[in-house]
């Protein structure tokens, strides 16, 4: 799991916990006190690691990341070779010709840095959009399960200290997500 996804999972777990806690606090009143609390817990991290849709997104992101790294390595190698050639020719070129070649090299280096930054921005944006999509599917499945079983409180397992395993609906959420959305395609990067 990438650090970004791990951080995102913690954010979802925290947001879900806060949202459910806030709902529970608001619901506490004379009428709510008479209502039976029907609780479930879900391991958000496990869902995000084990669903086929999440796995397919991770595989696609891995291929994009590898292509990104390979492209950068290729560009860096080409520039390194050009720099070496420039240094070798320094004594053979006039000062003006060397200065012009050096400026050309610096321009190419600057363009490469911009291209790398753009690729990184595009990858980060694609990764974030993929995470939003998997979050959307997860919340839809979880909301449907909660309504079906009349859960009044669903907590992320990551925020609970002790829990009876009978309250854990993680495996069922995973099964439902795998059935409903077996695969998600990586969103296309938006061009700027």
From TrEMBL:
Q: Which InterPro entries match?
A: Chaperone_Skp, Skp_dom_sf
Keyword terms: Signal
Report which superkingdom the organism of origin falls in.
Bacteria
Among the Pfam families in the record, one is: OmpH
Any coiled-coil regions, as ranges: none
Q: Secretion signal: which residues? A: 1-26
Which family does the record assign?
Belongs to the Skp family.
Name of the protein this chain belongs to: Membrane protein
The scientific name of the source species is Tistrella bauzanensis
């Amino acid at each position: 799991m990438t650090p970004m996804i791990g951080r995102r999972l913690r954010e979802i777990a925290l947001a879900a916990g806060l949202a459910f806690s806030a709902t529970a606090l608001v619901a506490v009143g004379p009428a709510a006190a008479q209502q039976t609390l029907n609780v479930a817990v879900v391991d958000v991290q496990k869902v995000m690691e084990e669903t086929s849709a999440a796995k397919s997104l991770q595989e696609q992101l891995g291929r994009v990341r590898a292509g990104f790294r390979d492209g950068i390595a290729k560009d860096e190698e080409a520039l390194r070779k050009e720099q070496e050639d420039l240094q070798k020719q320094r004594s053979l070129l006039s000062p003006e010709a060397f200065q012009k070649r050096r400026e050309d090299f610096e321009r190419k280096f600057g363009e490469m840095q911009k291209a790398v930054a753009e690729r990184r921005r595009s990858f980060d944006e694609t990764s974030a959009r993929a995470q939003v999509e998997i979050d959307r599917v997860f919340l839809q499945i979880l909301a449907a399960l909660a309504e079906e079983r009349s859960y009044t409180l669903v907590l992320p397992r990551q925020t609970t200290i002790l829990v009876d395993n009978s309250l854990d609906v993680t495996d069922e959420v995973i099964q439902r997500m795998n059935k409903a959305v077996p695969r998600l395609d990586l969103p296309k990067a938006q061009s700027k």
